[in-house]
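Supplementary Text 2. Reproducibility record for the structural model of the 341-residue chain.

All settings were left at their defaults, and a single model was retained for analysis rather than an ensemble. We include the record here because the model underlies the residue-level annotations in Supplementary Table 4.
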Amino acid sequence: MRPWWLCALLLFAGCLPVEPELQWGSDALPIADAPPDVVGLTGWQPPVAEAKEWADQCPEFALTKEGNPVWQDNSRSNVRHWDQVKALNGGQVTPPGPQEIGDCTSWGAKHAIQNTVAAQSIRGPPVDFAPVFAPYLYGAGRVLVAKGLFKRGDGCDGASVARAAVEHGVLLETQPGVPKYSGSLARQWGNSGPPAQFVDLAKPFRIKYVARVRTVDQCRDAIVNGYGVTIASSWGTSNKAMRVQDGRVVARRSGSWAHQMCVDAYDGSAPSGRIYFHISNSWGENAHPEPVDDSPPGGFWVEANELATILAAEDSWAFSGSEGFEARLDVGRIRPRGPPR
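Retained model, structure tokens:
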């Protein structure tokens, strides 16, 4: 017979709430594998010497108010940058590619910069929103910043593209004479640099400030406060490694690709207590499983541990259109949001 104190302990333990364990793979998706030519659709390379030297002088992301560090508890926030883009772009997100060559660094930066501009316009003076032209960032990063160190062929690093946006500006798709995107054009500009007339057009649209993002908390605070973040690493996944979890398509690492993408949402409000970041890719709307929530096509969610692996490559960047990364204490969702479906 059990002693009375053991019975009481067991009874008390039975009253404690038990969080149900989510079974990874219990809701598998009937989907195909990732696009077959993965290597041709990547193109990130670790920073070259000049870019690394510049990157090592850049500050890490930190929130400030009037120049002083501040702290926010953003852990339970639920902020999605595509809401801001939709509010300025006729209710539409900008297409997630598809990129045609290994110019992913420019696509990741393109989406992050657009998210920054949209967030600042929502909370400040309105601007005419226009998509960023990726080949300009690609050519400026490879030629004007890295000065041909990448030689012929595809590829660049995130630091060179971030520096290009600061020093040489951003070209918009709607500016006079800007051609349509193509892989051949991106490769041409990546080898010879963007034409001089477009460098002149881009100069007034320089990004004023960038900062390195090294930790999950820094990325969360950047997203919640409206700063676009681009990430580069050799972290890779495939569609077979994606499952529905907490009402969203979630990916786990299942291999390697040298690739740059964009983080465009943070959600710390899932009932399970899990923390999620949404990653926007640039392989087109049909590259990944169709979303089961309100996220745009062509991307997926990851948990915090997966993002930490990506950030460990130390080539992830937050963009700001103003000096310093001021804490936006009035930050909030564009519209009320219910629990994940």
